[in-house]
Each structure stands twice: as structure tokens, then as C-alpha cells.
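Translate sequence into C-alpha cells.
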Amino acid sequence: MKRLILIVGPTASGKTDYAIDVARQYGSPIISCDSRQIYKELKIGAAPPSEEQLREVKHYFIFSHSINDYYTAGKYELEALELMHTLYKEYDTLVMVGGSGLYADAVCYGIDDFPPADMDLREELTARVKEEGGLEALRQELKRLDRESYDAIDIANPQRVVRALEVTLSTGRKFSSFKSFRKKEREFEIERIVLSLPREELYERINNRVDKMMERGLLKEAESMFPFRNRSALKTVGYKELFEYFDGRTGLDEAVSMIKQNTRRYAKRQITWFKKPYSL
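Result follows.
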């Protein structure tokens, strides 16, 4: 049977270098399962592999899409599986690496077939986050309409709350009712490797990497992305904090400090996700 070596872990844990070593061992290309490194405009803030690393081993799903594309984990599942089906004609083992748990799970286990996005309703709900007392108003509405989703999703994440409400309101069905939690059959076996580091070391690596990103020009990159700040691809750590700086809501030093803090928080969530044997 064909094999997929899946390498996951928190941001800044050394996944890229480790994956390159494994890929070279098996003569395999690397398939990225990072939900931000797919965007060609995000050369610095998404911490993609360096040009040298990309030359060492063939990578897929790095700079493959635009922030202007509407992209989801469901689309990634379809595109990645199609690519893997083709690659397995040449390779017995493939290497996949990334920190996006939902993207990794989509390939390994499948995700449920949710209805397509209702962009008008999503924009309306997103506006309500700002106009009606913030996120808490939407949380309470979700709690009233779909308590199962309220208890299950990350209600601190505005996008998750908006999406759950969007599906519930547009279909008349609870968002939670679309989740069957049934693993889909795959044509390959999965070897899952979770990288970890002592917390203090990981946090130091995160802080140092943010400093290096700023030295490489993250501020200029974020400034070029500022006109597109409402794209879902840019509602992410490293950009949203600098957008607040451009808005005059914070100072630059404070924005950089918040990038570090929010990246550390993101790493904690990743660690929790990848501790689960089956993440969905």
C-alpha cells in the first residue's frame, strides 16, 4: 500500500527542515498543508520555505494560489488528493508537512460536505461583529440557535463563529448537523509525526523569527497587502497586527510585540490540536 508521511507541529518547530531530510531519504516531493503558505503574495509573513529550501526538494501548494482566490479546506482536500493520486504512480511514499490541522485532517480523514459560502450573509455577519457589541453578540446568537456548535468550536475566533452562524441561518439547519465525523477511506496508509520542542525554546524561536521577518521586510509586505485587508487570507497573525499599526491604533513596537504574543498563542492551539489522535 502507498504511504503518506505526515509531519505536523506548531509554528517554528522546525517542520520544513525535518520534512526536507525525510523527503530526500525517500526521494519524495513535499506537499504542503499550510493554509497560508499557498498564497503567492505572502512571501514573508506566512514563513514559507526559503528559495534554497524550495530548490532542495520539489514542493507543492507553496505560492500556488492568490489571496484573491476563495479557498477552503474542502477545496484543498480535493486538489491535494488529485495531486497525490498522480504522484503515487511514480512514488511509493509521499511527504506532507504543515501546521494547519484542518488541512492535514482534510487529506487524511476527509471533511464534511458543508454548503457553499453565502458571501452576502457572511459580510453582513462580519459587519455585525463590529457594529453590535462585538463578537459576543454573535456568540450568544449561535448559542441560542446551535448550542452544539457553540460548545465545540473556538468561539474566540470570529471567523469560526461567523461561519457557523452563516451556515445555520442560510440553510435553516444547525451547523453541527453537517458534521458526521466519519473518516473517509484513503488509498494510502498514514505515518504521522508530530514535532515538539520545550515551550521556552519554542517561544524563543517564535520571537526570533518575528524579528527576522521584520528585518526581511514584513512591514513593507504588510503595507502592500493593506488595501486587501478584508480578504480572509489576511486575517492572520503577522498582518492583522500591522494593519492596526497602519490604522494608527497601535505603535510599531506594540504591533511587533502583539505578533509575537499572538503567534505564541497560535502555537499553543496547534499543540492542543495535534495532541489528538484524530483531530476532526
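Note: The mean pLDDT is 91.
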